[in-house]
Amino acid sequence: MEFSAKQIAAFIQGEIIGDENATVHTFAKIEEGMPGAISFLSNPKYTPYIYETQSSIVLVNKDFIPEHEIKTTLIKVDNAYESLAKLLNLYEMSKPKKQGIDSLAFVAPSAKIGENVYIGAFAYIGENAVIGDNTLIYPHTFVGDGVKIGNNCLLYSNVNVYHDCRIGNECILHSGAVIGADGFGFAPTPNGYDKIPQIGIVVLEDKVDIGANTCVDRATMGATVVHSGVKLDNLIQIAHNDEIGSHTVMAAQAGIAGSTKVGEWCMIGGQVGIAGHSKIGDKVSLGAQSGVPGNIKSGSQLIGTPPMELKQYFKSSIVQRNLPDMQKELHNLRKEVEELKQLLNK
After folding, report:
1. CATH number corresponding to 3-94
2. Which residues are catalytic?
3. What is the CATH number of domain 159-306?
4. 162, 187, 191, 248: which one has the fewest Cβ atoms less than 10 Å from its Cβ?
5. Taking the domains of the chain in order of start, what are their residue ranges?
6. How would you class 174 by CB atoms within 10 Å of its CB: exposed for 0-12, middle for 13-18, buried for 19 or more?
7. Residue 299 burial class via C-beta count within 10 angstroms: exposed 0-12, middle 13-18, buried 19 and up
8. Could you give the count of Cα atoms lying within 13 Å of 235 in the half-sphere of its Cβ?
9. Which residue numbers delimit the UDP-3-O-[3-hydroxymyristoyl] glucosamine N-acyltransferase non-repeat region domain (predicted)?
């Protein structure tokens, strides 16, 4: 499918600089541009590529002012990255969608399957499960008894959704995601650890993305809840009875211990660990590898273990780098003090 600069500019409300009839049929990074491709420029460090790219169209921010001649057609927009996302969504929606139930899939007789659903080979749909309209379930995915999945969802291969869990509309679960495995609950006894049955469920609200090999554990009682618009990267652990606020995002290898509440619009960096029974406020930013032992108030921007304000952290980092020199200086000062004491005692 081919689109002209004029059509694209109308869709994203951009201003054309160059040939409005230039056409594209694919996407490319600006440094790997080719004729017939559309690219974008939002990070200033990639600016040199715009003067040599072979892409037919490049999206740029409205404040971009070229310093040299540019051969490609530009479309100026308020935010080039956001506009690219809109175009990629349009491109994805234009692709033909799979439909139908493969003959090698198992669908329980009591399951309710919506319209235009795809269920791939060797997928399993349990008793009394409900699959909404236009949902795609790829091969080897397991949907347990009593699970409810909304409309327009996408479950890639080897996803496992345990019994009775709830998934809203427009959710995406990538390969290896596990929704509803038992929470890590054990009671210590003289003979070892006795398992505490985990009788709760997991609820994913609308437009939640779950990355590959990410686990969201079922609650001991009640529900582990991931609210609407949450985006979880690969290899993340959400423990039992956690509650993740709307539009919060987490990078890979973050881990949230049990019964923790994370607020809305938070940004959690890679390998962040948050202790159990904590309360994280709204719009909190935690830098990569932060270790959080307790509550954090809304609006905080923290990093480190224990986490501290960014300015304080960077100041502490400078001091830490200077510790070897400071140790030598302290040793010399001690030596001088001892020498002065000896002189005074004579």
Report:
1. 3.40.1390.10
2. 240
3. 2.160.10.10
4. 191
5. 3-94, 159-306, 320-345
6. buried
7. exposed
8. 8
9. 22-90
